[in-house]
Structures are given as C-alpha cells and as structure tokens.
Write a structure and sequence with these properties.
Layout (H helix, E strand, L loop, with lengths): L2 H13 L11 E17 L13 E17 L2 E12 L8 E11 L4 E8 L21 E10 L2 E9 L21 E10 L5 E14 L14 E14 L4 E15 L5 E3 L2 E10 L5 E10 L54 E10 L5 E11 L10 E15 L2 E12 L1 H7 L7 E10 L2 E6 L1
Antiparallel strand pairs: 1-2, 1-19, 1-20, 2-3, 3-4, 4-5, 5-6, 6-7, 7-8, 8-9, 9-10, 10-11, 11-12, 11-13, 13-14, 14-15, 15-16, 16-17, 17-18, 18-19
Amino acid sequence: MSGKTISLFLLLVSMGSWAQTDSLPNCLSLNLNHMTHGEVRGGGLPDMSDEGNMESNANFLLGRTRLNVNFQRPGLEAQAVLQNTAIWGMKGNQNLELYEAWVKMRTDYGLFAQVGRVALAYDDERIIGPNDFATASKSHDLLRLGYEGYGHQFHAILSYNQNASNIFGGSYYKDGAQYYKTMHTFWYHYDVPHFPLGASLLFMNIGEQAGVPESDKDYATNPERTVFQQIYGGYVNFHPKYLTLEGSYYRQTGTNADEKMNASPIDAWMAGVKATIKPSDRYGFVLGYDYLSGDEYMVVRQPGTLGSILKVQSKGFTPVYGSRTKFYGILDYFYRSAYLDGSTPGLQNTFVGGYYKPTSRIDCGLTYHYLGTATKLSGLEMTLGHAVEFEASYRFSDDISLKACYTQMHGTNTMDRLKQNKGDKNARWGWFSLVISPKILTTKW
C-alpha cells in the first residue's frame, strides 16, 4: 500500500464524524485477568545435550496477570494491557511488558484506523491468532486500516519492525519481538445475508531479515537483505442450526529466512476441513482432517552420525502466527520444535472427538488424533503416532473458571528418528489453569 493510498484513507477518516461532543458519554473500564497455570509433563521433546541423558520431565507453576485499561467515546477507542508472566519461584521479574497498547478511530461510514500494539485474531486463527494458551501470547506493532459494514469487512495491516533507532547498523533486524521485519496483510470477509455462510480471503506479504550485518566477516558472501514470502488463501464457515462445516486452504510461496539468516525458496500448502455436530446443548461431536505439506526427498540420518542435508527448496508449510494448539493437538509438538536438520516431513492430522455438558457449569471433551507425515520417507512408515486428549472445565461464576487437561501421545519409530529422541518417543502432559477475571471499575461521564 503506497503512501498516497494511506494519506487518502486517513483523509476519509478525518471527514467522518468522530469528534467528541458534550452530549455523548465517555466510558472508562478497568479489568483484571489472572491465570495460575500448572504443568506436569515428560518425554517427547528432543534431547539436545551432548551426553544424551537430560532429564525428560518438568513440573512447574506459572502465573500470568493482565491489567486492562479501556477508554471509549463515539468515534474513538483506546486500550492498554499490562502483562506479567513468571514461573513460581523465579528470581527477579524480567517478564513485565506492555502486551497491548493501541488507539482506534472510527467514522460514521464504517471506516476505521488503528495504530499501536494489537493482539490479532482472524477467522479460525489458523494463520493469525494470539495463541493465548502459550501464556505470553502474541501481539503485533502495526497500523490497521479498514472498513466494516453491510456484511463486508476489509482490513489492511502494515507493520515495520526494528531493534533500535541507530543511524549506524540500525537497519539490521534480529532477535526482536517478532521474527519478521515487515508485514503487509489484506483480509476480506463476507457474511451472506439471511444465510448461515461466511467466507474470507487472506493475503500476507512477510519480509524477513536474511544475511549478516555489514560488520560481519561473512558480509561479502551473505549480505544483509530483506526476503519476502507470501501466504494466500481462504476460509469458509457454513453453520446451519445443528451443524458447522469449516474449510481452509492456504499456499506459501516466495523466499524464507531460516534461523541462521540464510534464504531459500519456499513452495508449500495446507488444507483443512472440520465438521462440528451439535444435536443438543448438552453434547456434540467433532471430526476433521488437516494436511500440511512437507519437504521432499528427506534423508533421515541415523542417530549419532554427523553431516547435514542441503535443502534447495522448502516444501514444508509453516503456520506462521496461528494458534497451533487449536488444530494439531494441545501438545503443540510438531511446530514448536524443529525436526532433524531443520527439514519437516509435513503433517497429516485426522481427529475425532466429542464433548458433553452434564450441568450448566461443567464441560468435558475427549479427542483422538492420528498423526502422520505428508512426505514418504525411505525405510520408515508415515505414521508418527497417536494422541488422546481429555479436557474438563468448571465455572464457579461468570469471572472464575478452572480448566484441566491430560494428553498422552504414543510415538512410532518414525517419530523417534525424526526428532532424535534417543528412545523417548512417548509424551505425556497434564495441566490446569485457574482463571479469575473480575471487572474492577466501569465509569461513564
């Protein structure tokens, strides 16, 4: 989006009626959200120690507190969310941050402009979502321009990240709050009038830092530059009375920068379908299938051997900023940690489950996942493993709830070889979250 286009949009916003008048109310609210989270987990993740005998379990308690301040008046809204996360017993406090801080202007014509740090969520959060289960969650520094009205929604998101305001060396971006340097996103959604169908289109152009800074000795062979990858596709939701059908398809092209700041071309895709059947308010069923493409011609090294695999083109789909635990198992095992040699065999996820609500305060759910690779591997089966998840929640009141889950995954020899787990291919994970969200203050004048 050019500077002239942005200037024209802001001019249209300024022509709208968003100025404050004495006869219209101001509203200020102050809310608190506290989560105490505990985990007991073991196995699954690779042992990266030289000796190969690290303890493969962890037990801990974590606290996350958010203080949310929101101001609204006709045509203007502002929000700031202060967040602190810390493991119980942690020395010091290095996790205090401003999770959200933004200002949003609206006109009478459905146009809006928003600027600041924002937690984004689009469609089913497959590609863009806060991933709130990750405790710290995700937010983005951005400018968002858009229109919403008559069933149409259009958003344009522009982001540019930097480490510091240095004149010398200030253009090199690494180890920042986001792994991307620039992001341009365009999202359009339409809800069909008087019919339970909604559809979205998404296009993202993500610029990542590649190469090394000018001061590095390898600058001549790998100079600093920004490489771009594109993600585009769509999402459909059909939701008649007792049934919800969801489908999504996305392609990933362009150039990708890896952890070593090297650039390689990428050509990947994913597709997913999901059906939720709800014959009653008390119970329901869910089933679906996800396919994420993987790298071709993967050579799986034997444990303990040396060498590396040269990857000319990446065929493995990466769900960038999505809320992964919603789709590929709560364990978040396949896109949280890398496979051997940085390649990915992709993922096939077939799942089926059900939920039951015995009372108005209690919810229970059980889900089974069959997990396999998308790429055929020489000498190895495509089955990665099987996972079972049991979840339960209890609502003490509107602002106090307790949720617990236990996940058991049984991995195959393929899982063992790809992750180099040295025999510990099974994973177990139990956790609970106590969430208390009181509304402290709301005042109008």
